[in-house]
Amino acid sequence: RELLLLNGPNLGILGRREPEVYGTATLADIEALVSAEVAPRGWSVRPVQRDCEGALVGAVHDGDDTVGAIVNPGALMIAGWSLRDALANYPHPWIEVHLSNVWARERFRHESVLAPLATGLIAGLGPAGYRLAARALLDLVAD
Ligand code: DQA
Known about the structure:
By secondary structure, the protein is an alpha/beta fold. The chain has one domain: Rossmann fold. It has helices at 19-22, 27-38, 53-61, 76-79, 81-88, 127-140; strands spanning 2-7, 44-49, 68-72, 94-98, 120-123.
């Protein structure tokens, strides 16, 4: 059983991306955190980070065989309509995660076109948000 861990544009450079906003953990650190959380249940993680929306859409299409997903869409939260439509067809629970508290930031980050479709949303807790999302999916998905 695999958990889809989808990260959008600019998240591949975590660790050196505006560390005052996003911290110093790398995406590899976050992937390890999620893996460690789901490993006791025998799940593995399918990590996908892409800067292009189309590649993320493809990963969602290819994700039907996963059990659930954690999605940090990055700035695609604002107008990623094709990612939104792909997720509308994703047949498993998925959780939107943002490292930062987007509502404490610029107004253009206050609306997510994806959030109405998500099972839940976590924002502002940094890398721990991914771990908590994984924990929630473990509870939501029956083996
Ligand atoms: C982000 C918040 C988005 O507004 C931003 O465009 C990102 C990262 C976060 O994890 O806090 O790329 O999704």
